[in-house]
Structure formats: C-alpha cells, structure tokens
Design a protein that fits this description.
By secondary structure, the protein is α+β, with helices and mostly antiparallel strands. The protein has one domain: Rossmann fold, CATH 3.40.50.150. It has a 4-stranded mixed beta sheet with strand order 1-2-6-5, covered by helices on one side. The longest helix is centred in the N-terminal third of the chain and has 14 residues. It starts with 13 loop residues before the first strand and ends with a strand.
C-alpha cells in the first residue's frame, strides 16, 4: 500500500479490509494517494478499520504466536476526511457495534475524476 507497483488508472476497484490498521496516521495520506493513482476515475474503494483512538503494540498473534506490530484505531470522521483530502468522494459509511464495543468502521467511496 505504501509503494504500489501498478500502472496509473489500471485498477477498476480496490478493497482494503482491515489492512490500514497497520499504517501510521502520518502515512495514510500517502497510501490514499497511491490508491488514487492506480484506480480508474469513478472506481469504488471499500475500506474497513478498527474504530477508536490511539495505537497499541500487539505482541501476540492468534494462536499465541509472537509478533511485534502496531494496530492503529481511528474515528470514521477522520478516515472520511483523509479520503476527501485524497480525492475520493465518500458515498456511505457505517460502524459495526456489539454490546461491548465498536468493532469496526466501513466506508464506501469513489475515486473522483
């Protein structure tokens, strides 16, 4: 995501499902610029992410496997703002919730012309 080796306007749509959670805030704009560059005008973008504030270091993966990766939580309004700044039109968004917490955000956007 931080260095897409794809031709300009070569992608008809893009899905980033809980993958931006590992990108620091100061690099999200650059990732969206790469997305916009490789996507065709008007093509769809579907994002999902952890909702919340701040970051945490995850040291244990599923099954107890050791790891060292940061997980970044974000507010939907911030993600939508970054998308709009990056040349995307947000068409829909929602937050998935449970009785205990917010689970994730989903945003559907389109690359502007």
């Amino acid at each position: 995501m931080t260095d897409l080796n794809l031709a300009e306007s070569s992608v008809a749509g893009l899905v980033a499902w809980y993958s931006l959670i590992h990108i620091p805030d100061d690099q999200v704009g650059s990732v969206f610029a790469h997305f916009r560059r490789v996507m065709r005008p008007g093509s769809p973008l579907l994002l999902s992410f952890h909702v919340g504030d701040g970051s945490r270091l995850k040291t244990q993966g599923y099954g107890g496997h050791p790891m060292k990766v940061y997980v970044h939580r974000r507010q939907p309004v911030q993600m939508a703002a970054w998308l709009q700044e990056g040349g995307f039109t947000v068409e829909a968004q929602m937050t998935l919730t449970s009785a205990e917490s917010s689970l994730g955000g989903i945003i559907f956007a389109r690359r502007e012309s």
